Amino acid sequence: MQQRSRHSLLLAMIVVLAACSHGPQRSTQAGQSSLQDWVDTELSGYVAEQFSQHPRFKGEPVIIVRLEGDDIQPDIDGLTRGLRDQVMDSLLTAPGVLVPWQPQQRQAEHHRRLDQLQCGRQRDASYFIGIETTRTLNGQFRVSMRVLDVRAGEWVSGFTRQWSGDLTASEMRALQTRRTDESLRGLRVLPFSSGQADLAATYLANNLSCLLRRQDVEDVRIKVDLGNTDDARLRTLLGLIGNNLSRYSEVQVTDARQQANTILRGELHSIQPNLFQVWVILQPRDSGLHLSGVDTATYLRVASPVKDQGEHRMVRDPPESTPAIARMELVRRTNGGGYTADCERNAQGCPVLELDVESADAVLVIAHGIKVGLSQLSGRCNLGNRLSGASGSYAFRYPEARFSASDWPTLYAVAVRGDDSSRQLKRLQRELPDACGANAGQIVEADQHERWLQQLDRLLAIHPLQAVWAARRIP
Length: 475
Fold this sequence. Notes:
Elements: H1 4-7, E1 25-26, H2 35-53, E2 62-68, E3 71-72, E4 75-77, H3 78-93, E5 127-135, E6 141-149, E7 154-155, E8 161-165, H4 169-175, E9 178-180, E10 192-193, H5 197-215, E11 220-224, H6 232-245, E12 251-253, E13 262-272, E14 275-284, E15 295-301, E16 324-333, E17 350-358, E18 362-368, E19 374-376, E20 382-388, E21 391-397, H7 400-404, E22 410-416, H8 419-429, H9 446-462, E23 467-473
Parallel strand pairs: 1-8, 2-5, 10-15, 11-12, 11-13
Antiparallel strand pairs: 2-3, 4-9, 5-6, 6-7, 6-8, 13-14, 14-15, 16-17, 17-21, 18-19, 18-22, 20-21, 22-23
């Protein structure tokens, strides 16, 4: 967010534009199929046929993601997730289609031999199938499907499908529910967070195990080299990878360099503030060469590199570390969510925004609607928080009536660290009404909107390393 173009997002009013028309289009006019029928009878079969038979796609790994414009989104709504499941069912039964291994997929058991691994899904995706849902100018919805060629960095010409029509009430509720898309975890769009070292290690170890299996090795004695780094998080990650690999009978992990024939090293490369690419490399001992095809990478979001402070001492973020919004999900909770008794009276549950932050001293959540204007989720919206130091979880109820209105707001979460930025954010917070209170939407004049947003924009620009933000559009 150091770039001015990112800041200007907060100054723009949310306007839903009609998307460009791509490919065949279906409507829900009388006698024609619904969205689910269109997916079942047309989309799923078309995608499965293309990826199982077309020479360009056959045998290439593919995953399905949510799009906004040309951008892959790290979160996914319930409607897109349901459509993805329908299409995936067809892909998984089609011959010659590969779906990459994803970190949220738990193994029923940890295999003891490399040849027991199911490694057909360990490769990075060559293609992303993108699904985008937009609202048209006549009040209907358009669902579009496109395919991105990852290596070429371009959309595949001619591979598009589109439907438009009305959504059912249950589809509307699903569209309004947003969760982090864990199928993208480890990619640049959704890095592992600093608290997910175990998941990152499992992901990398799985890739290395499958790469070793491809090498058809039988006697691998690995020494995990921790001498190249003073970063405690990287040292922890490498140690966990070694533990995962040691479970295989073909692999031994040793602390003695002379007993090892392979060295496991890690490299941490800064991509941008807070974002690092982690490479894990296997190389023959004393050769200085990499084993061809036996290295793997992932992305990791950390506050800053941290030096090891001793085996039994807790590693703490330095005061200057940048805050992070690790998770921002809009879900429906019943009384089982443990938030409020109000949810018990609604069979569909309450809309709840759940937020996980790291290294933050102050947090503000804003609802910005086209008609209602600016308000904050606080006061009666606040369902409580669970904090440990400067990190923790927040939960905010979102007014049910705002879902049925045609306001289509965007929710913004802003997290800051440091006394000065916290004071500025709290001063701005006092000017906004509570979205769950009687005065929600009291700032209605456009010049007041712009003045307030300009002040927030200035705060983010002045404190680029102490302030971050994330957004979720509804629906």
